[in-house]
């Protein structure tokens, strides 16, 4: 297995970083996940632009052009050129004596790897989710490698034999532990607005665009926990989740069997069709 680390392709065993890396000490870094499907890197530019935006937000001086230029190098070294795969990448503030303030003139640590990974055209899984308090910080718009709140709530979902945790902040549903969440009510698609309480998912943005293309009305507004019972459909979105129907959310059962809501199906099908074109740029 190969890893791209600071400008070089090395084997996974040789991919070593300092214990003084700020990513290790503070979780001081940004990550990104994208997939390569039949027609190339799915929404590559959107993912790389988000990475650059996030790095700018936290003042890590790094130009994602290096990553862009080396994606093909990594895929070739990993024998994954033109194969379905997942690419993980992260950029941290680099190696410096442990001190909270940002060090000056330290190069970022840049790491990425690719794994074989396939995605069905439509996520066959009707998801079950629990509701968990959203005790994360107030900058969930930053795709930080510090994911304690996300992994703790996801672990709670796994322990409850469900697939995901939907997070509740101040009485409203923000997002999932590693997904965005949407509802459908009387034909209108509803989702939390893209502010500092959610990560603005690339899949979320794609779905909103599909709604506009398909003339499905959208309202970006927070849904209260006590409104869930009145919703007609619900689904999670994410790079590896795609558009996944929710069968059960907390005490609300949407479907007892494999049924899927009609707006959800429409969006799943439209989303699957995007694989037939090259969306990389
Ligand atoms: N929300 C959170 C907290 C996430 O971690 C993710 C993806 O990892 C998403 C939403 C979905 O984002 P995307 O569609 O860009 O994968």
UniProtKB/TrEMBL annotation:
Keyword Transferase: yes
InterPro entries (UniProt xref): Aminotrans_IV, Aminotrans_IV_CS, Aminotransferase-like, BCAT-like_C, BCAT-like_N, Class-IV_PLP-Dep_Aminotrnsfr
Organism: Flagellimonas lutimaris
Signal sequence annotation: none
Similarity comment: family membership: Belongs to the class-IV pyridoxal-phosphate-dependent aminotransferase family.
GO biological process, one term: carboxylic acid biosynthetic process
Spans through the membrane: none
Protein name in UniProt: Aminotransferase IV
GO molecular function: transaminase activity
PROSITE patterns listed in its UniProt record: AA_TRANSFER_CLASS_4
Cofactors (names): pyridoxal 5'-phosphate
Superkingdom of origin: Bacteria
Keyword Transferase: yes
Keyword terms, alphabetized: Aminotransferase, Pyridoxal phosphate, Transferase
Gene Ontology cellular-component annotations: cytosol
Pfam families assigned: Aminotran_4
């Amino acid at each position: 297995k190969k890893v791209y680390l600071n400008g070089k392709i090395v084997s996974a065993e040789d991919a070593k970083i300092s214990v003084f890396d700020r990513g290790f000490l503070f979780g001081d870094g940004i990550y990104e996940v994208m997939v390569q499907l039949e027609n190339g890197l799915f929404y590559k530019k959107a993912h790389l632009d988000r990475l650059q935006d996030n790095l700018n937000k936290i003042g890590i001086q790094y130009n994602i052009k290096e990553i862009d230029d080396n994606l093909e190098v990594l895929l070739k070294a990993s024998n994954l050129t033109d194969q379905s795969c997942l690419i993980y990448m992260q950029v941290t503030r680099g190696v410096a004596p442990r001190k909270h303030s940002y060090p000056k003139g330290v190069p970022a640590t840049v790491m990425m790897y690719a794994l074989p990974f396939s995605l069905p055209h439509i996520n066959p899984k009707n998801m079950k989710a629990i509701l968990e308090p959203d005790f994360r910080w107030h900058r969930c718009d930053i795709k930080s490698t510090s994911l304690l709140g996300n992994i703790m709530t996801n672990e709670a979902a796994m322990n409850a034999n469900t697939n995901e945790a939907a997070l509740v902040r101040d009485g409203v549903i923000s997002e999932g532990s590693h997904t965005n969440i949407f509802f459908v009510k009387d034909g209108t698609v509803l989702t939390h607005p893209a502010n500092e309480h959610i990560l603005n998912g690339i899949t979320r943005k794609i779905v909103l665009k599909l709604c506009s293309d398909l003339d499905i009305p959208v309202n970006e507004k927070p849904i209260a926990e006590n409104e869930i019972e009145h919703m007609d459909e619900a689904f999670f979105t994410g790079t590896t989740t795609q558009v996944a129907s929710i069968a059960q959310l907390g005490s609300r059962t949407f479907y007892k069997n494999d049924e899927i809501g009609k707006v959800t199906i429409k969006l799943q099908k439209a989303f699957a069709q995007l694989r037939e074109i090259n969306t990389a740029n």
